[in-house]
Amino acid sequence: MKADTDVIVIGGGFFGMYIAEFYAQQGKKVILFEKEQDFMQHASFANQARVHNGYHYPRSILTALRSRVSFPRFVDEFKDCIDNSFEKYYMIGRLLSNVTAKQFELFCQRIGVPCTLASRKITSLVNPNLIEATFSTVEYAFDAVKLKLAMLDRLEHAGVDYRLGVCVNKITQAGTNLTVETLSVANDSENESFSANQVLNCTYSMINDVLTKSQLEPVALKHEMTEMCLVEAPDELKDKGITVMCGPFFSIMPFPSERLHSFSHVRYTPHFQWIDSKDSPYINGHNYSSNIEKKSNWNRMLLDAKRYMPILDQCQYKKSIWEVKTVLPRSESNDARPILFKPNHGLLGLHSVMGGKIDNVYDITLELSKHEKYLTSI
Ligand SMILES: Cc1cc2nc3c(=O)[nH]c(=O)nc-3n(C[C@H](O)[C@H](O)[C@H](O)COP(=O)(O)OP(=O)(O)OC[C@H]3O[C@@H](n4cnc5c(N)ncnc54)[C@H](O)[C@@H]3O)c2cc1C
After folding, report:
1. What is the whole-number distance in angstroms between the Cα of residue 117 and the centre of ligand 1?
2. The CATH number of domain 1-49+144-216+337-378 is 3.50.50.60
3. Which of 108, 154, 354, 378 has the greatest CB tally within 10 Å of its CB?
């Protein structure tokens, strides 16, 4: 039987929007479902807004090199959404760091990114007993609200049929097609069902929600309940971003969509964590996140960070944004950010995909292209 549509994309975060457009540009009929009333309300908004250029991954050369390659492409493709107006510094912690200054410099040379010793203007702001070296680097931030509007424009241009406030509840096989059952979030008696040749599960922290509701085996994913603090930076730091590497340190950098700085700390940003597995009851991260009491770790973050840079004491805390951060459990040892690509996971034509950082979208579309080629060759 002919399906209602070629492709259904579940999840209107940056990945779902980009992937929906990717298929529509190939002439496919695409429907995109997002359960919230607007696009990019979860991880694609509530993150650190860093456009990675490789510096962050001295322990995973592959992730560093992939970031290095994707950086100019992302910056060029989304130039109107990029803030490149600030100076970016990477500092190396003297104690507890997994890299030394020398190792970091060599690593930057190896991946081919600019890295020079910073001027006194910035080093005079740091505690030399705790910071071994400060490097001037090139890294930018993205404006998630501008990115959303740009992607919305592109979806409309590509002719994607999108539905907001619609949650996908279940996927089942119907011959060679898939049946997708949806529920209107505003009116839960409004159920609909659609058939498609292929379904892309782009729901990030909720990938296993869709899978378990469809009685399919969950993927091993690790989730962290994270708190990103947004602050007004002191005047001396307004046009700067700082990341201390590589261990239990902190980062402060522009968060363009709110005209503030994000402040995160490796030790205090994650509040707690859990792992999805087929042997434990499933936890719905979004429901959990909206129901728990949220107690900020801002004071702890600041107390630690101002030991490294006393000027941080002048930051004015504004608010925190909370989100479930999801990574593959195997990334834990080296902080790598490989993509998740599970083609035909549980059902023929159902593909679950996830990227650990925004520019991973290029790695995913590459895999989808290869998969598409493979399908047309059989
Ligand atoms: C705290 C934090 C900091 C980060 N920092 C950075 C950074 O600095 N730089 C970087 O590149 N990356 C960063 N990341 C990673 C980056 O945010 C993610 O890789 C990216 O946003 C994932 O996009 P997505 O579209 O897959 O997920 P999301 O934006 O979460 O989108 C998934 C969408 O699916 C929808 N959905 C879920 N279930 C259903 C359903 N059943 N039916 C319909 N819709 C559904 C959700 O409502 C959501 O809108 C960070 C992430 C976090 C959490």
Report:
1. 34
2. yes
3. 354
Q: What does the block give as tokens for 37? A: 């009333």
CATH topology identical between 1-49+144-216+337-378 and 58-142+221-327: no
- Across the range 229-246, mean pLDDT stands at 98
What long-range pairs does 21-29 form, CB within 8 A, spacing at least 24?
Answer: 21/151, 21/154, 21/155, 21/158, 21/160, 22/365, 22/368, 23/200, 24/155, 24/158, 24/159, 24/160, 25/158, 26/372, 29/5, 29/161
User: Which residues are bridge partners to 223 per DSSP?
Assistant: 274, 326
- Architecture per CATH, 58-142+221-327: 2-Layer Sandwich (3.30)
> In one letter, which amino acid is 373?
K
226 C-beta closer than 6 A to ligand 1: yes
Give the domain ranges of the chain.
1-49+144-216+337-378, 58-142+221-327
Which residues neighbour 272 within 8 Å (Cβ) at sequence distance 6 or greater?
224, 225
pLDDT value of residue 377: 63
Where is 30: in which H helix or E strand?
Answer: strand 30-34
Distance 204 CA to ligand 1 centre (A): 5
Question: Average model confidence (pLDDT) for the chain?
Answer: 95
What pLDDT sits at residue 329? 87
The model's pTM is: 0.97
Nearest CA to ligand 1 atom 36: 11
